[in-house]
Amino acid sequence: MPRLTPLLFGLLVSILVSAAPPPASLSSRDLLGEIIDALGIGLVTQINTTITLDSLVTNLVSVNVEVQNPLPFELTLDTVSSTAGINNTVFASFNHTFSTGIVVPPFGKAQTGVIDNVLLTQGAVATLAIIPLGFLDLLEVDTNVRALTIDGLLGVPLSITGLHQKNVSTLYFLDLTAS
Ligand SMILES: *[C@@H]1O[C@H](CO)[C@@H](O)[C@H](O)[C@H]1NC(C)=O
Ligand SMILES: *[C@@H]1O[C@H](CO)[C@@H](O)[C@H](O)[C@H]1NC(C)=O
Ligand SMILES: *[C@@H]1O[C@H](CO)[C@@H](O)[C@H](O)[C@H]1NC(C)=O
Ligand SMILES: *[C@@H]1O[C@H](CO)[C@@H](O)[C@H](O)[C@H]1NC(C)=O
Predict the structure, then answer these.
(1) What spacing in Å lies between the alpha carbon of 56 and ligand 2's midpoint?
(2) Quick one: which of 137, 56, 63, 71 has its CA closest to 104?
(3) In 3-state terms, the chain is what percent helix, strand and coil (to 5)?
(4) What are 52-86's pLDDT values in tens digits?
């Protein structure tokens, strides 16, 4: 992966240059997503899902996601929308805006913290069947990031759409204390 970085860096810089100061055009946004997909760089390294007793009624769970930054400069995540599932069947969906951007250091990792209101689209009971698999495929990830931020500030806003990632390690926690 480090060998790919100069290539990605060059492509990203050219997109940044063409994207700033007006927001990235639709084609730039899709292009960046396609580049990241094509290079097989997963931005997500781990998903932890917390299921409560309420989840059985509400079909809502929370997740904490570990993300990685394959790039040699800081990225800050402002929003993420994602669907996840198994074999092209969506089991979970959420749209989230971070109250404080998630700062991911160059070549580093960060956790998003708890993201609530993740909808189990097949219902909680049907979802129990996929827990033993221990992984999820990210079927569609759209994110608004800022590239080249400094401690989460400033940076160049970019929308990255249509990311896919297979086989993301997923842990499930049953929280019986929540009400
Ligand atoms: C997921 O849970 C494991 C085990 O408790 C922990 O080591 C890891 O840091 C957690 N990751 C996230 C993203 O919450
Ligand atoms: C996913 O699809 C593959 C190939 O069709 C099949 O072998 C596998 O059992 C499926 N997995 C699940 C969890 O349904
Ligand atoms: C996320 O947003 C999309 C597009 O607006 C919408 O179709 C979807 O239902 C939303 N998902 C959740 C869990 O709210
Ligand atoms: C999924 O990842 C695990 C390691 O996290 C690996 O053992 C397994 O072979 C992978 N499965 C597929 C279908 O890539």
Answers:
(1) 25
(2) 71
(3) 25, 50, 20
(4) 999 999 999 999 999 999 888 899 999 999 999 99
Which residue, among 93, 97, 85, 104, has the nearest Cα to 43 in the 3D structure?
Answer: 104
Cα 66 to Cα 38: distance, rounded to the nearest angstrom? 21
Q: How far apart are CA 121 and CA 90, in angstroms?
A: 7
Reply yes or no on whether the pLDDT at 88 is more than 80.
yes
The best mutation among 61, 91, 93 to test binding of ligand 3, ranked by most ligand atoms within 8 Å of the C-beta, falls on 93
What's the pLDDT tens digit per position in 14-59?
655 554 444 444 455 566 666 667 667 788 999 999 999 999 999 9
- Candidate from 48, 118, 172, 175 with most ligand 1 atoms within 8 A of CB, to mutate: 48
Place of tokens 């160059």: 106
Q: What six digits make up the tokens of 173?
A: 């926690």
**Which residues form the pocket of ligand 4, taking CB atoms under 6 Å from any ligand atom?**
135, 167, 169
Q: Which atom of ligand 2 is nearest to the CA of 86?
A: 13
Architecture category of domain 29-175 in CATH = Sandwich (2.60)
Q: Are strands 89-104 and 60-68 parallel, antiparallel or unpaired?
A: unpaired
Average pLDDT over residues 124-133: 93
Beta bridge partners of 143: 80, 160
The radius of gyration computed from the CA coordinates of the chain, to the nearest angstrom, equals 17
